[in-house]
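Progress report, Aim 2. The chain analyzed during this reporting quarter is listed below.
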Amino acid sequence: MDSENPSFDGDSLETNDVRYEVFVRLLIQNESRVRSSLRGLLPGWHDVEEVMQEASLVAWRKFVEFEQGTSFGGWLMTIARFEAMKFRRKMARTPMVFSDEVWNLLAEDAIAAAEPAEIRRDALEACLQKLAPLQRELLLKAHAPGVRLYEIAQQSGRSEQAFYKSMQRLRASLLECITKTVNKEAMA
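Predicted structure tokens for the chain:
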């Protein structure tokens, strides 16, 4: 079954459990892109969470209306945009509210910006997988929240200077891979 365009023929979505599972899979596949575009429309992450939750509920209620062969991501993005507009209208009593015209321009920009971010994130994942397991583990450890690099250097048995140099080379290699992957994607 195509993950972006599930088949609604025959018995494939006969039960609510199966339909729910298909919906959740599609939602998870598209959620980060929708959140990214909502972040460009709303003032804070708390607002994004609230609107995303409401958009997910509306999408589930309307899932029976989802047209086979269309993009679930685009459909969800449209629902999220309308939910964000509703949220914005509720917040209209606050002193800093954009006009509908400005807000629509911001919405278009946010949606356009979400795709390149997703491409970069996918490139990062692919490039991380290309690293040797030890290098990947070291790089991920170094970027974990609350970690002190000198502690990782000690754990790895290297001097701080040697460790920092190694990290610098790994980051440069990763950046080069991401840049090449993104450029290749842009040419396609």
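The two ends are 25 Å apart (CA to CA). The chain has two domains: 1-113, 131-188. These observations will guide the mutagenesis work planned for the next reporting period.
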